[in-house]
Amino acid sequence: MFQNIENLPADPILGLNQTFQQDANPEKINLSVGVYQNAQGHTPIFSAVKKAEQQLIDSQLTKTYAPQAGDPSFLANISKLLVGNELVSALGDRLAAVMTPGGCGALRMGAELLVSTGFSGNVWVSDPTWANHFPLLQSAGLSLKTYRYYDSSLNGVNFPNMLEDLEQIPSGDVVLLHGCCHNPTGADITAAQWDQVVEVLKARNLVPFIDVAYQGFGQGLDEDAYGVRLAMSKLPEVLVANSCSKNFGLYRERTGSIMIVSATAEQTKAAQSHVLAAARRCYSMSPYHGGGIVGHLLSDTALTQEWKNELNSVRERMNRLRLGLAEGLNQAQSKINFDFVANSSGMFCYLGIPKQDVLTLRSEFAIYLLESTRINVAGLSEENLPVIVERVSEVISR
Ligand SMILES: Cc1ncc(COP(=O)(O)O)c(C=O)c1O
């Protein structure tokens, strides 16, 4: 059976990571990884998450199946965290959530739901977008097109272009938006721009599918939810893919949810039943452990406060490093103005240097970033920052 199949190439990001691991240079620096790292280069477990997990384990009396939609406490609390208490009450049963294996599972379940409604339009994604959006959605049977978003000549979002493209999208199509901390560019739209985007979606009868993988990593938990809340309060139909991988540090526990808003409680119930049917035929139900931890943590006031404090420190540290990089590079050379790095949001940003310089940084100095110039801000540290500034400046000034 398997004699005729060929080895597939490694995922470009994971492949680069492998090359990094094999690099013998003791001074090597990895700016290409997709996880948060502390000053020691570790991806720690949040202390509040560890405590919630221990309490969950101590109090758990059975491992029997959880409800198929997922842990009720997780679903209620994660909805409140992302959608906000008031809007959750206002939407009532027009809003439903189903626990999924991470944000990827949520994106896939959203795609399965769209396919099961008979949707035959396009899903429009930003150019560029997170690379995995394509296989995740296309392999469910959806077709994807892009709208203009990042403009490398501006080192930021070209909002007039984005809006112009959204205004051309046929009525009834789906628009995938990054809720915050755009991956890979780190360039977000402002709250005022969200207002305009939602106006266009409403006027053109477009359905947003909002990917929220970094709530709390950008401006703050509530600020990062602005687009989701606005869309849910103004539009009849909204899909949201939520991930707890980064903001709860639960990467390997595969924790997330798909949220559905539709025009009526009956339609939401029907849509939810299609998500449950899709889950059943793919993997039956989501893993429980991560959702159990988040549900427990968010129903405990003290643990929630502790987690929020930790999340704030993570965000502040990334902001310090981002600022340090921008200021360091601006002082060390005059060819590129790196202010846009300071203004980027979340874990990633583009460095906006020529591709040849990316390759030189890798071959000469064992500094690894993606060819798109995406760097993980959390790959910077107080220790490696001066080295990175010196070497990047040297290479781009040649
Ligand atoms: C934009 C975006 N969406 C979704 C995800 C999904 O993350 P996970 O499936 O690990 O929760 C990620 C993770 O890197 C991401 O960057």
Secondary structure: elements and pairs:
Blueprint: H1 12-22, E1 29-30, H2 47-59, H3 72-83, H4 85-91, E2 95-100, H5 102-116, E3 122-127, H6 133-138, E4 143-148, E5 150-151, E6 156-157, H7 159-166, E7 174-178, H8 191-203, E8 207-212, H9 226-234, E9 238-243, E10 256-261, H10 265-282, H11 289-298, H12 301-332, H13 339-342, E11 348-350, H14 355-365, E12 367-368, E13 374-376, H15 385-397
Parallel strand pairs: 1-12, 3-4, 3-7, 7-8, 8-9
Antiparallel strand pairs: 2-10, 5-6, 9-10, 11-13
Helix pairs in contact: 2-11, 2-12, 3-4, 3-11, 5-10, 8-9, 12-15, 14-15
Pyridoxal-5'-phosphate binds at residues 34, 102-104, 130, 183, 211, 213, 243, 245, 251, 256.
Textual characterization of the structure:
This protein has 398 residues and is α/β, with parallel strands linked by helices. The chain folds into 2 domains: 12-44 and 309-397, Aspartate Aminotransferase, domain 1 (Alpha-Beta Complex); 49-299, Type I PLP-dependent aspartate aminotransferase-like (Major domain) (Aspartate Aminotransferase, domain 2, 3-Layer(aba) Sandwich), CATH 3.40.640.10. Helix content is 46%, strand content 14%. The chain has 15 helices and 13 strands. It has helices at 12-22, 47-59, 72-83, 85-91, 102-116, 133-138, 159-166, 191-203, 226-234, 265-282, 289-298, 301-332, 339-342, 355-365, 385-397, and strands spanning 29-30, 95-100, 122-127, 143-148, 150-151, 156-157, 174-178, 207-212, 238-243, 256-261, 348-350, 367-368, 374-376. A 7-stranded mixed sheet has the order 2-10-9-8-7-3-4, with helices on both faces. A two-stranded parallel sheet has the order 1-12. It has a two-stranded antiparallel sheet with strand order 5-6. A hairpin with a 4-residue loop joins strand 5 (150-151) and strand 6 (156-157). The chain is globular and about 65 Å long. The mean pLDDT is 96. Pyridoxal-5'-phosphate is lined by residues 34, 102-104, 130, 183, 211, 213, 243, 245, 251, 256.
